[in-house]
Amino acid sequence: MGCCDCGSFERQFSDRMAKSNLSRYRRKGPDPSTRILIEVVRRSGPRGGTLLDIGAGIGVLHHELLCADFTQATHVEISRAYIEAARQETALRNHSEAVRFVHGDFVERAGELSAADAVTLDRVVCCYADYRSLLHAAAGKCSHFLALSYPRERWYVRLAFWLQNRVRALGHNPFRTFVHPERRWNAVLTAAGFEPCHQGGTFAWGVRAYRRRAPLSDAAIKRTRR
């Protein structure tokens, strides 16, 4: 699941799960770690620019951040069921003209996308075995601000992930999740020109934000477009 096995993602993030997540979001709003991520973007991120949300799911981030915080968003998601759920909610909020939906593995489709002022990855790093390729591609599309949530390196989180993966294996589900060493993926982002500006989160999920040390030049931004 580096440049990922799309079939395993489609199976894991099914129509049933998409509908359940959308229903819960409409009743309760964003999950706690997602709510923290949203507040970090609002407090520290650019205003009125463009958002690239990788592994966007049902679109919670751009549902919450469009208008007051961002004017345009690109929603990249590998599950067709999640994209459909996100489209429904986007239409209800009258944001359809402001959102571009892109289906597929972000690493494989990054070359088709333009750089954005802010890039977000909410519970996405844990779905990639090859997190380096994911974060390198994400950094290459970010002109100013990047924020992500990730599973903390705690024994109870590792145990929970191991149990979930074991259940999937017994059910012949090839999808897996990972608790990657924070120092290693942090090094990928710092090497790409970013510096940390926020660290927080919940009991199980961390939230980190970064600013690009030097904004991408106009020439560099043009090179991100194909």
Describe the structure.
With 226 residues, the chain is of the alpha/beta class. Helices cover 44% and strands 23% of the residues. The chain is built from 10 helices and 7 strands. It has helices spanning 6-12, 15-28, 32-44, 60-65, 80-92, 106-109, 131-140, 155-170, 182-191, 218-223; strands spanning 49-54, 70-77, 99-103, 116-122, 142-151, 194-201, 205-212. It has a 7-stranded mixed beta sheet with strand order 3-2-1-4-5-7-6, with helices on both faces. α2 (15-28) packs parallel to α5. The relative contact order is 0.17.
List keywords for this structure.
226 residues, alpha/beta, 7-stranded mixed sheet, 7 strands, 44% helix, globular
